Description:
Number of helices: 4
Shape: globular
CATH architecture: 2-Layer Sandwich
CATH class: Alpha Beta
Mean pLDDT: 88
Number of strands: 5
Distance between the termini: 42 Å
Radius of gyration: 13 Å
Structural class: alpha+beta
Amino acid sequence: MTEEQFHGAATQIYSAEYDRDFLKYTPAIHERIERKLSDMGMRLRKFPHQRLKGIEAFKLRVGEYRVIYQYDVEKNEILLIATGHRREVYKKSMS
């Protein structure tokens, strides 16, 4: 068992904006996003995080949707900042 598997999935902390937008999605989109977040949380240290330009955050691609987040490996936490369609989410997260 690897060190990351031993510690388990990272704790997910949801912002109000993330929750509001996430709850608008269909159950199928919920499942896809949750599956990707779980995968990232199980291997937080080695996950290929994609840094955004202009803000201290990262993006997670889930089909045509994106999750904007920050993470802390030492605390084993993911802060979910925003989610949305790829055409809109960057406008929300940068304002």
